[in-house]
Specification:
This protein has 241 residues and is an alpha+beta fold. The protein has one helix at residues 12-63; strands at 78-79, 92-93, 104-112, 121-130, 148-154, 163-166, 180-183, 189-196, 199-205, 214-219, 231-240. It folds into 2 domains: 16-145 and 230-241; 148-219, Elongation Factor Tu (Ef-tu), domain 3 (Beta Barrel). 22% of the residues lie in helices and 29% in strands.
Amino acid sequence: MRNKLQYKGFSLIEVLLAVGTLAIGMIFIGGTFLTGIHFATIATERTIAAVAADEAFAKIRLYGVNLTDPNLVVDQLTPFEALNTIAAEEFAYPSTKSLAKKQYYWSALCRQVGSDPTNRLVQVTVFISRKVGNSTTYPGGTQWPAPIKVGVSTVAGAGNEYKLAINVPGEEIFISGGRTIADNQTGQLYRVLQRDPDAPNIIVLDRAWPGGLSDSVWVVPPPVGGGRNPCIAIYQKVIRF
């Protein structure tokens, strides 16, 4: 009998299957790297925000507020710069003489705690934000991200306790899903879950709104022309002056 030569090896189909499996695996691995970079960036910014907030509270304690200022009241948030005029570079982190290349900024809103002026307690809400680009401007004409007041009202009907309507047309672009807003009267913070898919001027909150029928909230808006949410984190303290 004649011996037959037998050739052993990989067929073209087996090679294609192996390459396809490897390609799919590399896609998933590449996705995990991108996700890791994203969360590492968030963690870094949150760390910077915490340090910047400590510096902001220290400056607010240092410069202080006038407790007899008529703008400092119980039922309204007032920007810190309206209570004490300080140099613009003091709002940058880290604070230096030049604002040209600064990326992180803080802003503060103040509210008197209680109607008795002798308690000397002030609720301070600090917003830490990032600025991208030296020429970027923000609504209100500011050169860095700062909270602005947006008029809102409740939405009538059962099941709408978590919803607010933005009163002024065009201001709905200031508040979108993922933003944090501060109630102007109480200083309480609310997380915006999303915009109502059927009405872009209506936002959905993470909890029920206990305020009045017509009120206002504070939010850090995106840059003029659009862009990502500049606000990194919000911190609150009650400070005795």
